[in-house]
Write a sequence for this structure.
């Protein structure tokens, strides 16, 4: 009996050891891949550099998710003394976080509504605020387009599934404006009603809408043109909304009033509006401001 | 209880050996209580009774409350109806792969709910492994109220099954064996002997399962979406309200705190009654 329990004890230890080895293995694997991607994309920073780098925290609209690592890389190449990190979320969430006392150095906003709110609340260095990009709304469809949507007029067809932003997220604000214009000029109020009854999810970030369309979980989604332009070719279909029925989104940048790194923050701001920064944004489908 | 006597006893305690340990213990427990309970108290300081009562009339609050209660109740009922006999058969029989089944049942408990949400979408989503066939039949699961129940069932039912297994394994087999020798079938033994004997425990397990379902957030927002009145449960309504209407977020949070306290009280009451009977 004793021997048996000893044996089970041993086998349990063995199993536990194997599991721990697996954990350690997967962790080191993740570590390895991390190192290789870093080495692949960056000009291997030396250890001393890494130690003396000043952190720079950028709160950025989620629609800048694709562009953010490239912006970071280019900025850090020009200014190796800074270590840039992005917090990417819906602009309305970033605004909320800043009002609740979150510490950041730069605010990249997808909507002037929230920039103005922070300006009047005294959270931004108001003189630093400027436009840096713009974007229109576009309707994206999954590549397969099984719902056979041909134009915006089809979006009120029954049994369609549509995703869009919430009323608070900038992309959602612009989506509603564009839908209102389309309803008023071309498609009428019953189209608008039908379209809204097809919405199955209101996403809190713009990339959230893109993902739902990419997965094929919805038949159509309202996103920024930049997301369509930056998407891998052939992964999405799009219906362009004419400019006169569309709603232009302006991106603004500002330095936070409570930043401890004003120099680095203004350097980032300069970089963003410089030819280099604008080139990167254009590559990711953003129009100039 | 007059104060001078309390002070006297404290002074007395100070002189006896081990007083330092007592003081240290009180400080430690006090710190734990403060850390765990102060945030909940703080919720009530950012609103007023009047504001709270007006927000109760807000359709977002009413719809999310209704949806949360209905979906959590449905998930709990399914967990109880399927989980209890499953736990019984599982616990009372030896079969190959039994330990694997144990692991499968426990896995969702330690899995981050966000993983559960993505995983459910990969199986039941419109392009998912099973979902694509359901889609051909014109049947959608993801982004419906059903998806909310499924997400809740996925994260909460293991909690119920686990507790049911525990209860059954501590149950003396002789009652069942006696009933068997008198000719009762497995079904009769289960319904007439096992369920009544562990009923109190099963109810409290059901209540904690309901509470877990009520709190579900990560899996729901990923698998069921965020649509008011259809898939926006209370935790999702809090998350969405935090992006605009701060007051509503606090009001819904307070409602959930009240429900949680009521749930705990119910569990305490039931388990205590169970003890008296035993």
């Amino acid at each position: 009996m004793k021997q048996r329990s000893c044996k089970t004890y041993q086998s349990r230890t063995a199993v536990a050891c194997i599991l721990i080895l697996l954990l350690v293995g997967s962790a080191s694997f993740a570590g390895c891949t991390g190192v290789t991607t870093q080495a692949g994309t960056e000009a291997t920073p030396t250890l001393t550099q890494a130690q003396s780098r000043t952190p720079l925290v950028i709160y950025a609209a989620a629609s800048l998710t694709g562009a953010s690592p490239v912006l970071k890389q280019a900025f850090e190449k020009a200014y190796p003394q800074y270590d840039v990190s992005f917090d990417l979320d819906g602009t309305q969430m970033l605004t909320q976080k800043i009002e609740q006392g979150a510490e950041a150095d730069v605010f990249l906003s997808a909507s002037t509504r929230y920039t103005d709110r922070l300006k009047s609340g005294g959270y931004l260095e108001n003189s630093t605020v400027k436009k840096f990009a713009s974007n229109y709304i576009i309707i994206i469809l999954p590549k397969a387009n099984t719902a056979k949507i041909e134009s915006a007029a089809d979006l009120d067809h029954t049994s369609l599934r549509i995703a869009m932003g919430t009323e608070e997220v900038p992309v959602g604000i612009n989506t509603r404006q564009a839908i209102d214009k389309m309803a008023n000029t071309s498609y009428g109020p019953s189209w608008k009603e039908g379209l809204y009854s097809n919405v199955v999810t209101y996403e809190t970030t713009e990339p959230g809408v893109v993902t739902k369309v990419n997965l094929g979980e919805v038949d159509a989604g309202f996103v920024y043109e930049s997301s369509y332009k930056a998407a891998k070719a052939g992964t999405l279909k799009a219906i362009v909304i004419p400019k006169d029925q569309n709603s232009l989104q302006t991106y603004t940048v500002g330095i936070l009033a409570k930043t401890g790194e004003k120099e680095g923050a203004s350097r980032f701001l300069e970089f963003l509006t410089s030819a280099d920064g604008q080139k990167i944004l254009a590559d990711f489908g953003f129009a100039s401001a | 209880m007059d104060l001078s006597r309390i002070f006297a006893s404290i002074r007395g305690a100070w002189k006896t050996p081990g007083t330092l340990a007592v003081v240290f213990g009180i400080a430690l427990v006090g710190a734990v209580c403060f850390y765990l309970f102060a945030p909940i108290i703080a919720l009530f300081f950012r609103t007023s009774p009047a504001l709270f009562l007006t927000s109760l009339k807000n359709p977002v609050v009413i719809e999310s409350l209704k949806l949360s209660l209905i979906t959590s109740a449905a998930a709990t009922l399914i967990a109880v109806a399927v989980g209890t006999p499953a736990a019984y058969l599982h616990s009372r029989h030896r079969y190959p792969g039994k330990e694997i089944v144990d692991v499968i049942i426990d896995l969702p408990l330690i899995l981050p709910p966000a993983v559960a949400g993505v995983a459910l979408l990969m199986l039941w989503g419109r392009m998912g492994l099973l979902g694509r066939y359901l889609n051909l039949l014109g049947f959608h699961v993801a982004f419906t109220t059903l998806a909310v129940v499924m997400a809740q069932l996925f994260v909460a039912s293991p909690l119920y099954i686990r507790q049911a297994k525990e209860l059954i394994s501590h149950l003396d087999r002789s009652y069942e064996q006696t009933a068997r020798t008198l000719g009762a079938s497995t079904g009769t033994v289960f319904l007439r002997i096992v369920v009544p004997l562990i009923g109190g425990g099963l109810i409290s397990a059901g209540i904690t399962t309901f509470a877990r379902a009520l709190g579900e957030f990560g899996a729901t927002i990923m698998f069921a979406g965020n649509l008011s009145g259809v898939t926006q449960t209370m935790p999702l309504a809090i998350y969405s309200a935090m992006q605009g209407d701060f007051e509503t977020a606090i009001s819904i949070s307070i409602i959930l705190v009240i429900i949680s306290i009521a749930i705990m009280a119910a569990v305490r009451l039931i388990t205590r009654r169970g003890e008296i009977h035993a």
User: Anything to note?
Assistant: Residues 65 and 255 of chain B are 9 Å apart (CA to CA). Chain B is about 80% helix and 0% strand. Chain B has a mean pLDDT of 90.
